[in-house]
Specification:
Number of strands: 23
Largest sheet: 8 strands, parallel
Distance between the termini: 30 Å
Radius of gyration: 23 Å
Number of helices: 16
Helix content: 25-40%
Strand content: 15-25%
Shape: globular
């Protein structure tokens, strides 16, 4: 089945083109998924009549290039969020009540799964499954923390996964055990916790496919037209191909295959062999690797130990192996994204990237997160050609008094080196923004608001974290539109110009001119992918 883009005519709008041209244009004509003409209302109406294209009057709404989330996990999210949302539950008693209520609703043989779990409830006890077990007696319970780096399982879930004690892993993953060698239920990093989640019942194929379709439709409703999937699997690619064949794919996507530390040369060769697989709206040819974990659990790689003495253990047993893998994917022409939360991880990844030969006509690689950076790291980024893919939205878990786990781990002084988006941008580095959904909310309006205000949107009295790092309204929009396109080498995306793909977000008010507290509630009037409306208010 051959797929073509759609036709569309929009008038009565304000255009933010991300170019110097068409500053007074009010209308756009789209044919076969690409912008064919930009002009005033009369020009577009006349052209639309010529091609028998219906005209939509937007009545003063603002059109921008389609919003692109540079770091997202929609397939994972579709599965994870099928469980109960544990966000905001800060005590063991609150968690037990939520689990007991879910237990009462579930059929006898079902697992109880939860997501968005916060660490605060376990601050004094450590993460222990036995604290939750009798809320759902006899039932396997598997909960994943909000950052997707730690999980908790109760004894029935551990038993189903065959976990009876500690194990050695190729990476820094860990089954946490007590002084007797018994698992506590805490599982650190995906290689460990996937033992449990892989033992849980799987959704049927059609259910999995439809859940992913519906997830993309949720994303479209907040103005997103595309994203970079950072946990790509073969099954994800197969579902995208199937959705597109069925005419049910509403998102433009790049799939980054998830490379595990233990993957062999044969695994690398297999991924490279499939790098050119693509559809009209999706492509592969990209890789996701890890260089460290997260600050809250002490698994981020830091220049100096954190307040608990952690932060100096590499994720890879052999850093030379990381370099070998990066070079293989680089030489194959693939785009590499490396997770690096800690400042030392960022520096070490930059060291490896700096050894790579130039590739004519291909974009250079990205580093994901960069949550803390020393001044030296910012200078190392300068001129590196690397894209910094960051998520200021994740500051929502910080406390004004620095009592949160993130700030406590980092310690006084270093906790002020977080999310240095302004310094990165001022160093001449390409900056992109994203959500890391389902780690944080997928709404790009929230993401832009946090980048602009560095405080809770809607609360003018909320603490502003490092105000000198705030972005302007225009920069925040560019980091969701033009800059991701440039970082990925897409000359026909991120702009409103003739020949560009017609991925469009239509706003009820100009996202650059509205105040930061109003931004999250600006209506999304229309979301267009490949010339086709995929969401209408």
């Amino acid at each position: 089945m051959e797929h073509h883009g759609s036709d569309l005519a929009l008038i009565g709008a304000r255009l933010r083109t991300n170019t110097e041209a068409h500053s007074k244009a009010t209308a756009i004509l789209v044919r076969e998924g690409r912008i064919e003409l930009i002009g005033d209302d009369a020009e577009i109406v006349a052209a639309a009549e010529q091609f028998a294209i219906p005209v939509r009057d937007l009545a003063g709404a603002t059109i921008t290039s389609g919003l692109f989330d540079s770091h997202t996990h929609p397939h994972w999210a579709a599965t994870v969020t099928a469980g109960i949302d544990l966000g905001g539950l800060e005590t063991i008693d609150e968690l037990r009540s939520a689990l007991a209520a879910a237990h009462a609703r579930l059929p006898e043989d079902a697992w109880l799964r939860g997501w968005n779990l916060e660490y605060e409830a376990f601050e004094h006890t450590g993460l222990r499954g036995d604290l939750l077990a009798d809320a759902a007696p006899g039932r396997p319970v598997a909960l994943i923390c909000y950052d997707l780096h730690t999980a908790i399982a109760t004894a029935p879930a551990l038993a189903a996964a065959g976990i009876t004690g500690a194990r050695s892993f190729d990476d820094a993953s860990e089954i946490v055990v007590d002084e007797t060698g018994e698992p506590t239920g805490e599982l650190r990093e995906p290689t460990a916790y996937n033992l449990v989640f892989d033992a849980a019942p799987k959704p049927a194929h059609d259910e999995d496919r439809d859940a992913l379709r519906d997830m993309f439709r949720r994303l479209a409703a907040v103005g997103l037209t595309g994203g970079a999937i950072m946990d790509g699997k073969d099954s994800t690619v197969e579902l995208l191909a199937e959705l597109e064949e069925r005419g049910e794919l509403d998102h433009r996507l790049t799939v980054h295959h998830w490379h595990a530390v233990g993957d062999t040369d044969a695994d690398v060769a297999r991924v490279i062999a499939a790098k050119d697989r693509a559809g009209r709206l999706w492509q592969t040819g990209a890789i996701k690797l890890f260089s460290d974990g997260v600050i809250d659990t002490g698994t981020a790689w830091l220049h100096a130990p954190d307040a608990c003495g952690d932060g100096r253990v590499p994720f890879w047993p052999s850093w030379d192996r990381f370099g070998e893998v990066v070079r293989a994917y680089h030489d194959a022409g693939m785009l590499i994204a490396t997770h690096a939360v800690g400042d030392y991880a960022v520096s070490r990844v930059l060291d490896v990237y700096a050894t790579l030969p130039q590739r004519a006509g291909l974009p250079f690689h990205t580093i994901e997160h960069l949550e803390v950076l020393s001044d030296a790291d910012v200078e190392q980024l300068r001129g590196s050609g690397v894209t910094a893919s960051m998520q200021p939205l994740h500051m929502q878990w910080r406390s004004a008094d620095h009592s949160d786990g993130w700030a406590t781990r980092l310690g006084e002084g270093r906790n002020a080196t977080g999310y240095r988006v302004r310094d990165v941008l001022d160093a001449g580095v390409t900056l992109t923004l994203g959500s890391d959904w389902p780690v944080a909310q997928y709404d790009p309006r929230l993401g832009m608001a946090w980048a602009r205000g560095r405080r809770t949107p809607g609360d003018q009295h909320a603490n502003v974290f490092e105000p000198e790092q705030r972005l302007t309204a225009e920069e925040a929009l560019l980091a969701y539109t033009l800059w991701p396109a440039q970082a990925r080498g897409h000359v026909d995306r991120g702009v409103l110009e003739v020949g560009a793909v017609a991925d469009l977000t239509v706003w009820g008010a100009d996202p650059v001119e509205v105040e930061v507290d109003e931004l999250p509630t600006v209506p999304i009037v229309l979301t267009v992918v490949d010339g086709r409306p995929v969401y209408e208010r």
